[in-house]
Design goal:
single chain, 323 residues, alpha/beta, Rossmann fold, Helicase, Ruva Protein, domain 3, five-stranded parallel sheet
Length: 323
């Protein structure tokens, strides 16, 4: 296995990733796992759902990621009165030409930040199904394709219930991973206060410039497909997915889409570690963010207060690791 490190030259890739992390670190304190996961999702061509209580820099993390990439960026603030046409766009009659013209909505971009995604009703959330899965939108019988870089980064607050709508399972399944942002440690909290007291964070945000071009990102994405995966590890992923379907703690287990997502995410994460092959630890690390939002727990499990993330961890411990 050691020889396979040299099958791909990852020097330029690793340098860019470190540069990207360092730049994010000048603005956001801590959250190393969140940063790793959002870069992993970008490389794996997946969408990300960021969940956390208000004030833990969910939106800032998403905005920073978009700002560091030389790509079109749009932000949609979801509200209870938002209609599908407000997101996708609408056809408007032009009196001069006597024809209908399509006016694109904010979803027509390359990196789309959807803030508070659980604040819009089901019909508006359902409008995202096609674009998230197929990178295209069909309106008035015409299909409009998105670019190769297209990525949706959504945020939601898990605590507040008033004025929110639970995301449909079909939509949750379209997110490659769910990243949970927790409170900072006491040391990180002190650093945050120190930066704000000196206004360094605000100054640094204004000076952020793109580090990666679209061409570079698309080239890095191609590296993911070249990551080596042994059959024993494919079987390991399959066994983990099967465990979610057979567990009495889970009412509805992970789908085949989830197993493909786990494979792609593990390959991208391996690259992030400077390797061109995956190991069981890559799959273990990435399994929780990839699977935790896709499982529907049994009523008994929910009553016990156990989270989907905890269940995934316990299931992984029971699955035999390939040697």
């Amino acid at each position: 296995m050691e020889e396979s490190v040299n099958r791909m030259d990852l020097t330029a890739f690793s340098e860019k990733v470190e540069e990207l992390k360092a730049q994010i670190g000048t603005i956001i304190v801590g959250q190393e796992q969140g940063v790793d996961l959002i870069i992993t999702a970008l490389l794996a061509n997946g969408h990300v759902l960021i969940e956390g209580v208000p004030g833990v820099a969910k939106t800032l993390l998403a905005k920073l990621t978009a700002k560091l990439i030389d790509a079109d960026y749009s932000r949609i603030q979801f509200t209870p009165d938002l209609m599908p046409s407000d997101v996708l766009g609408t056809s408007v009659f032009n009196l001069k030409t006597s024809e209908f013209e399509f006016h694109k909505g904010p979803v027509f971009s390359e990196i789309v930040l959807i803030d508070e995604i659980n604040r819009a009703p089901a019909k508006t959330q359902a409008a995202l199904f096609e674009v998230m899965e197929e990178r295209q939108i069909t309106i008035d019988g015409l299909t409009r394709k998105m670019g190769d870089l297209y990525m949706v980064v959504a945020t939601q607050n898990p605590v507040e219930q008033e004025g929110t709508y639970r995301l449909p399972e079909a939509q949750l399944d379209r997110f490659l991973m769910k990243i949970i942002i927790n409170y900072p440690s006491p040391e990180e909290e002190f650093t945050i206060l120190k930066r704000h007291n000196e206004n360094t964070e605000l100054t640094a945000l204004k000076s952020i410039k793109p580090l990666l071009s679209q061409k570079q990102i698309l080239a890095f994405k191609k590296l993911v497909s070249r990551v080596i995966v042994e059959d024993s590890l494919l079987k390991y992923i399959s066994d983990i997915i099967l465990a979610t379907r057979n567990s009495p703690a889970v009412y509805l287990g992970a789908s085949p889409r989830a197993s493909v997502a786990l494979l792609n995410a593990a390959k991208a994460y391996a690259l992030l570690q400077g390797r061109d092959f995956i190991i069981p630890d890559d799959i273990k690390y990435i399994a929780v963010p990839v699977l935790q939002h896709r499982l529907i727990l049994s009523p008994e499990t929910e009553m016990e207060g156990r989270s989907a993330g905890t269940i995934v961890k316990r299931l992984i411990e029971k699955v035999e690791v390939p040697k």
